[in-house]
């Protein structure tokens, strides 16, 4: 019987950007994220005559997926595996499909082949494939820090049900991947300041999440985002991920907040804007962002659960389970 796992993308409020020396894809900064619902990756695995990877209906030889399976094989005897994986959100939406993808993949393989891994161990394997994927193992508010660099939940999704509006400002893929951009940024004169101050932001972020203090979280998360983009700009050659619609969204979100709407922004290594809203406030924020020149569409989502096993691979995309 094949196994199917579902996982959701996550968005960092305190960002990871930069890698530690050595192997195993250890981040240089701790991070704090929210896991989304509605948007998901479904991944089915089963033993087969040979390793085979099918992404959104097309067979591929994805090197990162193969490397993830190879890492699991170093510790476990696994037969050849067929992996079929599907996202219900566009790859260029600026929502990392690698985060949900690797969280779902490791969770499905663990279950199908009875590897007996706990969530921390699954997070470790997911992180080796993509740093942010470590966090999609868990739902709600999630932290990722040393010394073991396995993600852990800070607060469950129901405990503070924030909402997220994603403003899509381009449909093309980013030009410089996160991994390449990070390695470049490590030569920036701003890099050491970024790493040391992010540790402080991270501790403060955990405290404000536990207190559910929206105003302070807004200030901290926007600061972490703008500081990361400041570092990106101060990289050689400079990494400019934003377009004019991105900047229009940032101003509009600040204006909304100044006039009393509880909302703040964050932007990853791309031009899409994520507006994080207090419970029940997403539709007014989506209406404002949708009206801005250059905003192609908006997606609205709440906070969701961690990676998990589900019954059915065939269920229609769009439904969380
Ligand atoms: C800007 O997890 O995509 O989204 O570990 O190289 O796969 P790799 O990088 P990735 O980087 C995420 C960067 C970010 C911030 C974040 O999610 O913390």
Q: Could you state the order of secondary-structure elements as H and E?
A: EEEEEEHEHHEEEHHHHEEHEE
Give the strand order of the largest sheet, numbering strands 1, 2, ... along the chain. Answer: 6-5-7-4-1-14
CATH topology of the largest domain: Ribosomal Protein S5, domain 2
How would you sum up the global shape?
globular
User: Kindly state the mean pLDDT as a whole number?
Assistant: 94
Class from secondary-structure proportions: alpha+beta
CATH class call of the largest domain: Alpha Beta
Helix content: 25-40%
> How is the main sheet built?
6 strands, mixed
Q: DSSP helix count?
A: 8
Which ranges are low-confidence, i.e. pLDDT below 50, for 5 or more consecutive residues? none
Task: Describe the model.
With 321 residues, this protein is of the alpha+beta class. The protein has 2 domains: 160 residues, Ribosomal Protein S5, domain 2, CATH 3.30.230.10; 140 residues, Alpha-Beta Plaits (2-Layer Sandwich), CATH 3.30.70. It contains 8 helices and 14 strands. The strands form 3 sheets. It has a 6-stranded mixed β-sheet. Strands 2-3-8-9 form a 4-stranded antiparallel β-sheet. A hairpin with a 7-residue loop joins strand 8 and strand 9. Helix 1 crosses helix 3 and helix 5 runs antiparallel to helix 6. Bound molecules: ligand DP6. The site of ligand DP6 has 15 residues, from helix 4.
């Amino acid at each position: 019987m094949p196994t199917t796992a579902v996982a959701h993308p996550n968005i960092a409020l305190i960002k990871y950007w930069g890698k530690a020396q050595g192997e195993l894809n250890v981040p240089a900064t701790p991070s704090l994220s929210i896991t989304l619902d509605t948007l998901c990756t479904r991944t089915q695995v089963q033993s087969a005559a040979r390793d085979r990877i099918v992404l959104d209906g097309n067979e591929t030889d994805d090197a990162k997926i193969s490397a993830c399976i190879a890492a699991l094989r170093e510790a476990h005897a696994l037969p050849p595996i067929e992996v079929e994986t599907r996202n219900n959100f566009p790859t260029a939406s600026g929502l990392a499909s690698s985060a949900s993808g690797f969280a779902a993949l490791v969770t499905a393989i663990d279950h199908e082949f009875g590897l007996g891994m706990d969530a921390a161990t699954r997070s470790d394997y997911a992180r080796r494939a993509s740093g942010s994927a470590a966090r999609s193992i868990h739902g709600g508010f999630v932290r990722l820090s040393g010394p073991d660099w396995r993600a852990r939940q800070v607060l469950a999704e129901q405990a503070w049900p924030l909402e997220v509006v994603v403003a899509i400002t381009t449909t093309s893929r980013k030009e410089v991947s996160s991994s390449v951009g990070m390695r470049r940024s490590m030569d920036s004169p701003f890099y050491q300041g970024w790493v040391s101050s992010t540790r402080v932001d991270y501790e403060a972020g955990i405290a404000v999440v536990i207190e559910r203090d929206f105003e302070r979280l807004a200030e901290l998360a926007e600061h972490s985002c703008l500081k990361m983009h400041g570092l990106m700009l101060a990289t050689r050659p400079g990494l400019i991920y934003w377009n004019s619609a991105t900047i229009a969204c940032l101003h509009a979100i600040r204006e909304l907040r100044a006039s009393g709407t509880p909302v703040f922004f964050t932007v990853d290594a791309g031009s899409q804007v994520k507006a994080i809203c207090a419970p029940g406030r997403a539709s007014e924020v989506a209406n404002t962002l949708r009206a801005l020149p250059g905003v192609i569409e908006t997606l609205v989502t709440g906070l969701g659960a961690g990676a998990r096993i589900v019954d059915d691979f065939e269920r229609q995309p769009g439904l969380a389970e």
